[in-house]
Each structure stands twice: as structure tokens, then as C-alpha cells.
Amino acid sequence: MNIRPIRKEELIEAKQLSAICFEYPFQMNKPKEEYLNQLLASPDQKGDAYWNMIYGAFTEQNELMSCLNVIPYQFYFDGSIMNGTGIGNVVTYPHHRKKGAVKKIFQTILPEMYKNKIAFSYLYPFSESFYRKYGYERSCTSIGWNLDLSKIPCCSYSGSFHLYSSPSEQPMFEETYKTFASSFNMMVNRDKYDWTILKEAKAAYNNTYAYLYKNDAGIPCGYIIFKKDFDNNQAILNCRELVYNSFSTLQAIMSFLSTYASDYKRVHFYGPSTHNLQSFCTDFAQSSSYMTIGSNGMIRAIHVPSVLKQANYKGSGEITIELFDQQIIENNGVFHIIFESGKAVSIEKTEHVSPDVSLPVSLFSSAIVGNYTPEQLLFCNDLTLHCTLEKLSCVFYKKPCWINNYF
């Protein structure tokens, strides 16, 4: 079995394999060469723009077995922007399943990402158990909010809402997004390929609406993108993205949405677990409002030294962390970190200091971006603690953590 990036002439087969596995019709309404040239010259999707980052597993006869996309992304992390990858479109021909093809691809790409000093990798799994074997762990818990529009408290607001109608308005959405996204670990620092969600909002043509909220000074402060959907035969506002710079901005957006109560039953959207929005339902018991909790993908730290260097610590001190990584041998071992005023000043691997905490890279990945309180970590099977909870909390503690990009 050979693992390598696909060649240009193999791109169409890779796309056809995706259509087979995810069961959607592949459409190529022009000659193969013309289709391919147009796709490469004017890619609409990020995966097409970085087609040369599609890795495939091939038989000795050069027959494609499996492939996946390793898409470059940048993630916010503890006040900085870190290079990362989004793993997507993981597909295998049904007659080549159970042959270890995807395993071989991961065994190839993970060390390569380390050499390129990629900080994090993220994916949305078909099976968490499967990807946990490669060092990924669930991350960025989402709260699904389903709020009865008639029970949302109305409040007055001094700003105004503006319906998106032209690409010239996109920069205002982008700046508003940056303000929101930069406060959460693992939110994507978007580029031009990440704004399909806005470009597809064509109210008069597909009934997908994007509204920008400006305060009374005319400054963009938030936005919402939604479309009509149905849940148990009831019309709902299905919100694809909700962004706000403050609670007062969110109040204004929710008040605006409540004006749809005569035509829609609920608004549905996902939000970060660190934001408590229960105040937007006056009565859960006497309404159709409800909440759900769900996983929102899986994270993996790739270049651990870079992650430890950029991480935020509490105060000044030192800690020694023992990591276990079966795919990236450079991450295996004991790291001694000295930090001052919240930042690492020294990180070194050592064989002469006993660890304060031992854990696999999967759990480390989820913990370092802020998915757990120290107390919650004590209930993780794979963690062995040799120090006080207070010392552990200098490194691993709850942080705002969320993501709203899909690969």
C-alpha cells in the first residue's frame, strides 16, 4: 500500500469516491478536461483550492482505495492565531474497507504535520472511538438552543438591522466575526473560502437571510444568518450562524427574532457551552423551548512544544507533564515547563524529573484548549495525577472554547 498526495488527473476520481461514500450525485456537466481546468482555475471551496493536500492510499497496482483532505486552517488559541489543519472528506471504497487504508494515511500525515509545526488538527468524526486511536478527542461542546419565540423576553434596542444584499457588505460581517471568534479557542481565523455561509444568503432567491446589527453609532456589533425549516411540522427559524460582541447585542438580536413569532414556533441555533442563554426563555415548563448538549468535533495537538509555548498559564510556577503519543514520537515523554506571568519561559523534555501529571495526547489536546475544569479532569480515566489540584489548575482549566466551521 502506498500513501501519497493525489495527482491532478486523480482529483475527479477522489470527488467521485466522496459522492459514492456520502451518497450524493456527482455532477460534471462538461467534458472531463474542461471541468478539471475550471475547477482548479476558480475553486469555490477550500478543499478544491488545496486539492494537492488530498492524501490517498493506493494499492501496489496504483488503484485508489481511500483518501482524505488535509485542509490548511488557522485557529484562535489563547490570544494568538495558530496554524492548523481540518481533516475532511475521509472516504474509502466499500470493497477496500477493513484493510487499514485510512490508518496508513494517518500514520503518514500526522508526523508530516509535526515537521511543518502545525499546532492543531480538527475533524468531525463518524466515530469518536475510531479517531481517538490517532490522538483526537472530543472538543468544543455545543449547546443546541431551541427557543419558543413567543417566550423570548422583548427588550428595546437603539441600533438597527440591515439585510445583507451585496458582497460589498461582507467586510462588516468579517470584522464582526473576528471580534466574536477571537474570544474562543479553536474558532477559525477565516479566509475568503470560509464565507460561503454568507454568500449563499440570498433572501429573495432562496429564503436564506443574513441580518447585520449596528448600534446607534452605526458600528457593526453582531449578525444572524437563518432560513426557514420545519421541526415536527412546525415552522422554525433555523439559525446557521449567530455572532455578537456583547450580551446587549444578543438581546437586540433575540428581540428582533421574537417578531417572527406569528409565523414561526421556535428559533434553533448552536452556541458555546460557556454562554448561558437560559434567560431568553421565560418559562421552559410552559413552552416548547428546550436545550440539547452535543459534541462539536474532535481536536488533536500536533506540535506539542508550540502549543505549550503559546498556552496561557495561571500566574508563575512550574509543572511537569508526561505525554503518550503513539503516532508522533516527538510528543512522547516528559515536558518540564516554567511559566511566569501566565506565559511559558522555558519548555524542555527531560528524563530526570518525575511528572506532576500523566495523560495521553488526546486528553491533553482537549484539556489545553479549555474543555475541562481541573475537577472534571479527575474523572477522566486516562489521567494520572501526582500533584495537587491547585498545581494542575495552573495549566488545565476551563476556557471559552468553540468552533463553527465545518470541513
Automatic annotation (TrEMBL):
Give the organism the record lists.
Velocimicrobium porci
Q: Where is the N-acetyltransferase domain?
A: 1-155
Q: Which UniProt keywords are present, listed alphabetically?
A: Transferase
Q: Does the keyword Zinc apply?
A: no
Q: What is this protein called?
A: GNAT family N-acetyltransferase
Q: Does the keyword Transferase apply?
A: yes
Question: Mind listing the GO biological process terms from this record?
Answer: aminoglycoside antibiotic catabolic process
Q: Which PANTHER family does the record match to this protein?
A: N-ACETYLTRANSFERASE EIS
Which PROSITE patterns does this UniProt record tie to the protein?
Answer: GNAT
Gene Ontology MF terms in the entry: aminoglycoside N-acetyltransferase activity
